[in-house]
Structure formats: structure tokens, C-alpha cells
Design a protein that fits this description.
This protein is of the alpha/beta class and 387 residues long. The protein has two domains: 169 residues, Rossmann fold (3-Layer(aba) Sandwich); 202 residues, Dehydroquinate synthase-like, alpha domain. It is built from 16 helices and eight strands. The strands form two sheets. Strands 1-8-5-4-2-3 form a six-stranded parallel sheet. The chain has a two-stranded antiparallel sheet with strand order 6-7. Helix 7 packs parallel to helix 9.
Amino acid sequence: MENFIFKNETKIIFGKDTENGVGKEILKYGKKVLFHYGAGSIKKTGLYEKVLKSLKESGITFFELGGVKPNPVVSLIRQGIKICRENDIDFILAVGGGSVIDSTKAISMGVNYKGDVWDFFEGKAKLESTLPTGVILTIPAAGSESSVVTVITNEDGLIKKGFHSSMLLPKFAILNPELTFTLPVFQIACGAADILAHTFERYFTQSENVDLTDKLCEGLIKSVIKNSRIAVSSPENYDAMAELMWASTIAHNGILGTGRIEDWTTHRLGHEISALYGITHGASLSVMFPAWMRYVYHFNTKRFAQFAERVFNINADFGDEEWLAKRGIDELTYYFKELGLPTTLSDLKIPFDKIELMAQKAIAKGPLGKFTKIQVEDAIRIYELAI
């Protein structure tokens, strides 16, 4: 097990009707709020009115900024920063999924910084302060509600990059599974792929003697597979959506990576697909993870065989470690297909003429990964395996 420091200060408020208390939670941090959300689905579901009611009852002054789209863009973030500066905002509330939360985090980074917020993502600036943020989660997927990460896209050059800092942790996250009941089935499936991907990036490691976190990862993976199958068939199943919502948070709040060296190659490769073609993040991951697995499994065949045995209950008596490793990858691919997710670039209906460009952009600052080092030629091969 590797040395580690674990700290996560986000307060989780879980359960039915918990969104109604958002105003009181915000009052612990400020009274002038930027209310940030997406394309308007929260207005159709009635959540928007619930939030307004709670803010007003708590005497909070608020300003709104909607319009966040999947793969949040820096231009809207700059608008949010401008609103915060002009109105002396002291708290930002994200109501939505990972894209809204990531956009909120980026706004919080830029308000007190004199330069452009993209400087942080280019490594040109050091984050010294943020505005406090809070979350009402509507989509179990990204885990951004309790993570130290934000990922945004710069439309100038179609560049998607992430930034990490413990200062980005929201002060609180309200998780009511009922708020997920109107999600399209495909979005639920993409969310499941996202949750699994966050777990895979930690599970597939070269770190040894990590039995506890191995079993935590495996248990979460099995639970997500089980409950996502229920949820896509019955989106209003509270128990299934509750399991997915809590799994989303746990998969990305840092606990599963303790004592392990994480990888994150597949996310970087997937980001290039999303940046160029606007593909939903989870859909890019359901394509790229099986391809990455097929390319790298032989660097630790034992771990992939363990994945097959423990997650998919494949009997080791039927084959050697390599056979098990390949079967586990196949089973994961079948599961993604069962959920209606793409598993190839052909499924995404995107051209293949920019594979080399995507590989070069992904490796622009050096080789990827910790499981094994991925150079440009390796990235090209992984993309080709995904065709």
C-alpha cells in the first residue's frame, strides 16, 4: 500500500425532500448567491421553483446563470465570473449534474483571480482562493459533487482540460434520488459508465497489497452493474437510483484511491473525443475503457484476471489468467451493450480521420498513465482498437 493523505470536507445531505433546506445551508456561508444550472430541465421538473422558494424564505439575494451544456465551456464560465464580480457574490449554487458542478467550480476559481480563468488549466496560474460552492445533484454520474476536480472545454481549439485542488470541494452536496426520476434512460446508462470509469481508473493499478480498496472497488462495481440494470428498466425505482447516486459520490471522492497509484489514461483519451465531437462523457468512456483494457491487460494479467473472477464471477477453473483477463473485458463490453451504450467509435458515428490528432493532443504534455506509460503511438493504437 502506498502512503496517502485523505481529506474530504464536503457535507453530504442525502434523501427525500432534502433540496428544500438548501437556503438554510447556504446561509452558513453567505447571502448573495449565483444560482447556476443547465439547459432548463430543472424548470420542467419543478426543482427550479423549489430552489427559488428556499432561497427567498432564507432571505438570500440571488442571481441566475443557466445554459450549461454537457462538456461545460469556458465562455459561459467567464460570464459567471463577471456576474460574481459585479454583484459581490459570496456563494455559488450548482443545481444539476457534473457539467454544472464543474462549471460552478471553475467560476469559483476565477472570481478573485486578476487574469483569465483558463490560465489555471494551462498551468500558468496557482489557485490561491475560491468562492464557496454547494450542490443539488440531479444526475448520478460524474461524482463532482464531492471531488477535487473540475473539467472544462475551451471552444478556442476544442481543448478539454481538468484542474485539481482541494479548494474545489463543495461545502455541501444535496443528494435526493427522486430528482433523477425524469432522466432519459441513455443518460442513466452514461452515468453508470462514468461511475464505473472513475472506479476503474483507481482499480487497475500496479500498487500491491491493496486488498481493502480492491474489495471496496469491486463491491461498488458490482452494485452499479446490478442497480443500473434495474434503473434503465425502471427509472423511478428509488432504491436503485439511490444506490447509483451514492456510488457516484463514493467513486470520485478519493476514498477508493487511497494507498493506490491511479491511472487516468482512459479519461484523457475520452476527453479528446468529447472535445472534438461533443460526445457525452460516459459514452466516450464506454468506448475507450474496453479498448484501453485490451491494449494494457498483459502488463498485469493477474489484476485483470482478478477483475473477471471477483466482479463477473467467471470460474478460474475454465482457463488460465490470460483467458480470464480477456473474458472479463468481454463481459464488461457485453454489459455496456446491454445498457444501450456505444462500445466502438463506429457506434458513435464519428469519423476516424482525427485519431492521430486526438492522440497528439492527449499526449501534448508527456506520456499518460501509471498502469503503464502511454505514448502517442500507444494512444493511436488504443483508438484503433476502439474502431
